[in-house]
Amino acid sequence: MKFWKYAVAVWLTLVIVVGFLLRIPMIPVLEETARNLFLHVPMWMTMSFCFLLGVIFSIRYLASGNIEMDIKAESVTKIGVLFGLCGLITGSLWARFTWGTWWTFAEPKINMSAMAMMIYVGYFILRGAFTDQVKRARISAVFNVFAATTIPFLLYIIPRQLPSLHPGADGNPAFSDMTDTELRLIFYPAVIGFIGLGFWLYNITLRSQMLHHKMQLRNLEKQ
User: FRET pair for 7, CA 20 to 30 Å: which of 74, 98, 115, 196?
Assistant: First the structure.
């Protein structure tokens, strides 16, 4: 059962090492910072993958009332927020070396991404506001479904309607126009590797959460 974890570790290590050692074409403006493509974008994709799993688990909880589904939703959403924050950090670093600023309110995608993270932080604040497990699980599941519906609008639809420095927006070259074969050979394996890492972290978090849940049940039984 541990084989896939070793495979993810080796795969992602190779991707990162090769990604930084491989000779890449000099794309105007991006130049060497184009290597961030192997980190920044896969992190956002892993975040989206985790949020998708989270909303599926939340819907399954609402349909079945199985508390295990709520625990799974909380666990995978935590990992989604972690990768979202990493995406913001790597995006800010990229902006500093290509746009000359760590953060700009004139760039909609950065600000919409931060707003999306704040919504998901609200999910965990909401969970902490309830002591009743069933009520917490039900309200959190509804909120998680709402949060997931905002992601396409905040990260994709709205930014594309506004002037932006991001690829594919406001006349800027699209992803397909600025990525040569060398970059694609690393980018797609990086996406697979980071999603594998995300699932690995989710698995660890879930086991911890399930253990905590069982300990709470035992304490209640003793009382």
Answer: 74
Give me the half-sphere count of Cα atoms (radius 13 Å) on the Cβ side of residue 93.
Answer: 13
Cβ neighbors of 130 (< 8 A, separation 6 or more) are 136, 139
Rounded to whole angstroms, how far apart are CA atoms 63 and 158? 31
Find the length of the chain.
Answer: 223
User: Per-residue pLDDT for 104 more than 80?
Assistant: no
Distance (Å, whole) CA 168 – CA 154:
16
For residues 61 and 59, give the distance between their C-alpha atoms in angstroms, rounded to a whole number.
5
Phi first, then psi, for residue 124 (nearest 5°) are -75, -30
In the numeric block, the tokens 């910072």 are attached to 33
Of 27-41, 64-78, 106-120, 200-214, least confident by mean pLDDT is 27-41
Helix (H, G, I), strand (E, B) or coil at 162: coil
CA distance 223 to 220: 5
Token pair 């975040």: residue? 47
Q: 3-state class of 9 per DSSP?
A: helix
Mean pLDDT of the chain: 85
Q: Once rounded to an integer, what is the mean pLDDT over residues 53-58?
A: 96
Torsion angle (degrees, nearest 10) of CA 189, 204, 135, 221 = 160
Question: Residue 185 has which token pair?
Answer: 């050979």
- Tokens in use for 137? 């699980």
